[in-house]
Amino acid sequence: xxxxxxxxxxxxxxxxxxxxxxxxxxxxxxxxxxxxxxxxxxxxxxxxxxxxxxxxxxxxxxxxxxxxxxxxxxxxxxxxxxxxxxxxxxxxxxxxxxxxxxxxxxxxxxxxxxxxxxxxxxxxxxxxxxxxxxxxxxxxxxxxxxxxxxxxxxxxxxxxxxxxxxxxxxxxxxxxxxxxxxxxxxxxxxxxx
Length: 193
Known about the structure:
Elements: H1 2-22, H2 28-54, H3 59-79, H4 89-109, H5 114-133, H6 138-192
Helix pairs in contact: 1-2, 1-4, 2-3, 3-5, 4-5, 4-6, 5-6
């Protein structure tokens, strides 16, 4: 949860920066509602992280954190729908860029727990894929497919990181066991001498 403690507040700050960039493209009430929702969800997630850190075996708290993660991610996935049809493409490009970066970052930072990356990435990338899919054009359909592939790649990165961490922990435990045996043998040899 160490990386999440940093990422969750950053989520709210990034939303504020995105809102500033979208100020001329999106209706102000809609933008304020979106930023406010992200801020509230981020605050709840931060409190949930603190609670889970103090009570790591509490499944209810953990599931609450994951649920709020999914809700926050869904807000990002919905962001692209705020842009009016035919509006300046840089606005939608900005949202796509931010979501791609955040979901890739989540895949790496949640490598010790791929379910967290899955829960974060699915709503955000699902929103993008839905947006593209609803456009009804060939290129949009291809983009929706690429977003789906990106989701799978991000999940595989998180799973690969989990495997690497498991292997590193297993190797560390084996080395610790070997070190203990060597120390014991060295003592025994010293006593014999």
